[in-house]
Amino acid sequence: MTQETKAELETDELVPAAEPKAGHAPLDAAVETQQDLSDEINAIKEAYAKALKSGTPAEIQPRLDYPPYRSSILRHPTKDLHHADPETIELYSPAFGHQDVHALESDLTIQHNGEPQGERIIVAGRVLDGDGRPVAGQLVEIWQANAAGRYIHKRDQHPAPLDPNFTGVGRCITGPDGSYRFTTIKPGAYPWKNHLNAWRPAHIHFSLFGTEFTQRIITQMYFPGDQLFPLDPIYQTIVDQDARDRLVADYDHNLTEPEWALGYNWDIVLTGSKRTWTENEALGTAGDQSE
Q1: What average pLDDT does the segment 45-58 reach?
Q2: Using CB atoms within 10 A as the burial measure, which of 6, 93, 154, 291 is most buried?
């Protein structure tokens, strides 16, 4: 796991972690409820639908400032960007050769002495460019909560059990056909303090690198049919339904292994109009138009 990945784990969602027994505290009338946030989300949906009917182009990437996601303003630059010399940055960045990424690192269920708790799953797919061509030799890292919805980091005080046999971090290199594959445990939903009774849908974080570590992108993969999708401000920052759907994996029975693990397929598209949403879109819609 790189230092950058560790930093991401330490700052997941950039909001305070849930406090133990917070849901049992007396309710403050000033605290925003899920209904308050849902009303805001629905109003934005209606405005976007009207804009589409009037001929406004579809928004395939998340809005930089999305009011229902209260800390979204902290997720992107607010000042002018400055050019950075990639060669200088490379002097201070971690470097991995292919020999440093062992094949066993893609199996998150065998990293400790015992079996992790939860539902074993296989997540596989391909990394593609905007023309559908495979992107080989890419470093792919994932990190996630355990089956109870708990991350292993000090900021996560969600009163759910830690799993001594599950760290929740893995990596691999894409094959000649752009393929990747991980064996892991299906993560659980977890609370976060965006508003009262706020819960994040189950998801896995993905990090991909290009030819340099300055080309890193980060995204999230979700699971089909999650009842929390309409309620989650982070997922809803992508106002276009087709674009949101590209973050949701497909159940794949051919990938499923008998009496072992369910399989989910999820392709990651790096460029073009069908590209996968990423968290570090500093240019927003301007970046979409420049491609």
Answers
A1: 94
A2: 93
